[in-house]
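Running this now, will post back.
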Amino acid sequence: MIGVAIPIPDPYGDALQAMRESFGDPLANAIPTHITLLPPTEVPAASLPDIEDHLRAVARSERGFWIRLRGTATFRPVSPVVFIALAEGISGCERLHAKVVSGPLERELSFPYHPHVTVAHHLPEEAMDRAFKELADYRAEFEVWGFSLYEHGCDGVWRPQRDFAFGNDHSD
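Update: finished.
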């Protein structure tokens, strides 16, 4: 299973991961802090070279943009998630998402795309409320350099496989 996401750079990524852990989220250390572009998706191993070619082409066609994170929001009661909201960079994420989920990664999504940074997921209501309150004044901003391809292991851990930098003809 793979996923594609914009990693949240440090110090923000590490700090939000520590906060997620403090709320009791058992996935805190298994999932790097990120903005999803392609949710976990089953793909045949044989299609990975085509998928990587596709992601390289997407990255080549893009340029950096700014993300400004501000405050919390939630998908409750539809989905038990508390997240940090994007105050800037939504259109850049939407454009990038649309390109990523085309070609060999075209698929129907369970929910409309809404870029966000999860900080609490499937936790007791008290923990969700605490996450919502404690991060209500959260602020961060950074420039997006590209995105990463992750493998989702059977153990639930997201493992970075390859980075795709914007405007480059190759990936790291």
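The chain has four helices and eight strands. More later if anyone needs it.
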